[in-house]
Amino acid sequence: PGVEVPEIKEKTANEVPVILWNHRWEYDKDPDEFFNTLIELKDSYDFKVIVCGEERKNAPEIFQKAREILSDRIIHFGFAKDRKTYFELLEKCDIAPVTAKHEFFGLSVLEAATCGVIPILPQRLSYPELFPQEDFGDLFYEDGKLKQKLENVLSTYKEIDTSKTTKRARQFSWDEFNNNFIALIKISDN
After folding, report:
1. pLDDT value of position 1
2. 171: Cα within 13 Å, side-chain hemisphere
3. CB-based burial label for 183 (10 Å; 0-12, 13-18, 19+)
4. Between these two residues, 70 and 175, which has the higher pLDDT value?
5. Angle value at C-alpha 136, between 135 and 141, nearest 5 degrees
6. Alpha-carbon torsion 172, 131, 104, 89, what sign?
7. What is the 3-state secondary structure (H, E, C) of the chain?
8. Pick from 1, 178, 179, 3: nearest CA to 90
9. pLDDT tens for residues 56-71?
10. From CA 124, how far away is CA 131, in angstroms rounded?
11. Residue 73 in this model has a pLDDT that exceeds 60
């Protein structure tokens, strides 16, 4: 699928890093690992949190637990009223740790990366295809090592150049898809 991308804006790291969750509120995205890692780090690191997504009746309990424990760090928690607001929230973020156990494509990761957010990715599922490890190996962590990877990124996020990941994510935009599709049609017509 193509990715909707916002207008390109100059990205500046926040003084206090903002960590993003922008996935479905379901078990296959492993919110337990994500939020438990943040809860473990909250006494050692200063950070804020933006949690996007639709609150569901049967959402994993960790969402409510995280809302309570991290309440003083939360900028936004819940559904964005529209796409414009959603992208405004993404643009406020610095880091997007991904904990998914099931993923077909990685749309939410690409949306975040188009806004200059640093993705922290597991070495599995579709992520090595979206961000080939030979070019983006520093984005990945091994299973069980999210906490260590996030600690490293929290300490260095201001120094990380996101232009390469943003450019890669924008290659999946609808405009790029349309341009490539039109080019293929022209080639096949010849």
Report:
1. 62
2. 9
3. exposed
4. 70
5. 140
6. negative
7. CCECCCCCCCCCCCCCCEEEECCCCCHHHCHHHHHHHHHHHCCCCCCEEEEECCCCCCCCCHHHHHHHHCHHHEEEEECCCCHHHHHHHHHCCCEEECCCCCCCCCHHHHHHHHCCCEEEEECCCCHHHHCCHHHHHHHEECCCCHHHHHHHHHHHHHHCCCHHHHHHHHCCEHHHHHHHHHHHHHHHHC
8. 3
9. 888 999 999 999 999 9
10. 11
11. yes
Q: ∠ CA 93-28-73 to the nearest 5 degrees?
A: 30
Residue with tokens 């049967």: 58
* Residue whose structure tokens are 């992208």: 87
φ/ψ (deg, to 5) at 58: -105, 25
Rounded to whole angstroms, the Cα distance separating 190 from 184 reads: 10
Structure tokens at 10: 């100059």
Query: Do β-strands 140-141 and 118-122 pair in parallel, antiparallel, or remain unpaired?
Result: parallel
Amino acid 190: pLDDT = 56
